[in-house]
Design a protein that fits this description.
The chain is built from 9 helices and 5 strands; from the N terminus they run ααααααβααββββα. It starts with a helix and ends with a helix. The protein has 221 residues and is an alpha+beta fold. It has a 5-stranded antiparallel sheet with strand order 1-5-4-3-2.
């Protein structure tokens, strides 16, 4: 997807959310995304300018200028991350952070979008349940119990039965469900619903998981 196509998609998303016409939505995105130096940010980076400058010695506009000036900047995420790591001496995690935010600022990556072009809807909640984390994990791994947990939806286990983080095919993607037992008896549930095909899928699945967690909490609280 080109930068222009990504930006147009963000405009359409804002139009759907606010009811604005195309021109108004476009102006709002540009005004909101304008950086202090005048560079237009198609989307906000994942962390503040001060934070990235403290960690890497450069702010976002400087990083964008450097990567834009690199002849191979259209070779994809892995190539850019390798360039940042090897040519600018930034370690692996920060090299990824710089690359992802560069992609967002320039429109190569939309919010919630992963490097492979798919999207992810994430939700986390700490709930009170009548079973502990291990028992809840066992329910997720069992086909019959999983039908009760997700009524009306087809699901398929995509991880090994011994996996600590079950991966379940549900809807148009795959959900990773991490369970953490808290000292107070509650269970922290973190859901990453990955491989969603479009940005349009993100809001509905974030809402689904929010309601699912709330129902789980209400049923056993």
């Amino acid at each position: 997807m080109t930068r222009q196509e990504s930006f147009k998609r963000r405009i359409r998303e804002r139009m759907a959310a606010t009811g604005e016409k195309y021109g108004a939505a476009r102006r709002q995105l540009i005004e909101k995304a304008e950086s202090p130096s005048g560079r237009t940010w198609v989307a906000e980076p994942e962390m503040s300018d001060d934070a990235i400058r403290e960690a890497t010695g450069r702010g976002w506009d400087e990083w964008c200028d450097l990567i834009d000036a690199w002849p191979a900047n259209t070779d994809g995420h892995t190539a850019i991350a390798t360039h940042v790591r090897e040519d600018h001496g930034i370690d692996g995690w920060w090299a990824q952070a710089v690359t992802v935010s560069y992609e967002r600022i320039t429109g190569l990556r939309l919010p919630h979008q992963r490097a492979d072009g798919t999207f992810s809807a994430d939700k986390t909640r700490t709930v009170t349940v009548t079973v502990d984390a291990e028992a809840l994990r066992a329910l997720l791994l069992d086909d019959d119990d999983r039908r009760d947990l997700f009524p009306g939806l087809d699901t398929e286990l995509r991880s090994r039965p011994t996996s600590k983080v079950p991966r379940i095919a549900i809807g148009p993607g795959v959900a990773q469900i991490a369970l953490e037992q808290r000292d107070d008896g509650r269970v922290r549930i973190s859901i990453a619903h990955e491989r969603l095909p479009s940005a349009d899928d993100v809001p509905q699945w974030k809402q689904y998981w929010s309601e699912w967690l709330a129902a789980l909490d209400a049923a056993d609280g």
